Structures are given as structure tokens and as C-alpha cells.
Predict the 3D structure of the following.
Amino acid sequence: MSIIEYILYKEVAVKEEQIESYKPVFITIQLSSETNKLLSESAARSHRKKLQEATIRLDDHLMRFHSISEKGKTNINSEEQLGSSLFKEKTEKS
């Protein structure tokens, strides 16, 4: 194993360990009437429950943005992943 392969291996192992240290949780939040309306409409369009839609959207947002103050500045890796998945979705629909 080369030095570079070893470093990459260690980085992946550390990230996996960090992820495993967090457990799934349920969080209760209050939505404004406008946000509730938007979430309901989005869930209906995607044929999902509001909880599923909110979870997917929150996951997506947290992967794409480091902080709310950096809105518009996406993570490069996440943007590439998002772009490839959007391309895949468009080609599958065609």
C-alpha cells in the first residue's frame, strides 16, 4: 500500500468512525404556515409523507451548505454528486 493509499484509507476510516458516533434522533420543530404549505405541496408532488420530505430536504441542505450564512456557496463534492444524480435522473426519465 502506498503512502497516498494509506492516507486515503485512514481518512475514510476516521469519517466512518465519526458518523457511527452519532445516533438517529427525532426532532420536533415548529414550521410557519407558509413553510408548512410549501412542505405539504412538495410532499404531495413527490408522493411522500411530510416527514419523509422534510428529512430528505434537510439532509440535502446540510450536505450542500456548510452554514446558513454561506447559502449559495455549495460544497464542491456535494455539488458534483448532486449534478451527477440530477443528470442520471434526467436521462432515466427520457
